[in-house]
């Protein structure tokens, strides 16, 4: 896993949009993570920020999207596991995602909004719906 316990720590990863994408649905980034310190209160939460940059081979402008997602962890114990899904809007005005785009991602723990500031990321993946069934591996 990868520990995040400071707002300035980032996890970088990437993906690509192949020609099998259905070109009609949003894409997802899923993160599987766990608490590295137990929640202290009944309403404790954890928030992550995801920034994505992307462009195709012949484009001269880098497009981007930013989103924040959170999870209510209450007073759950250390090593309790969770999953959060970020959605990338494929037809966002002026930032449309297209076949052939290469994406770069930056994920960080939003410590300003989170009650628990110590997590471990176990797995991250980028996915989208395809025109025909594809084997899925996790």
TrEMBL record:
This is Uncharacterized protein. It comes from marine sediment metagenome.
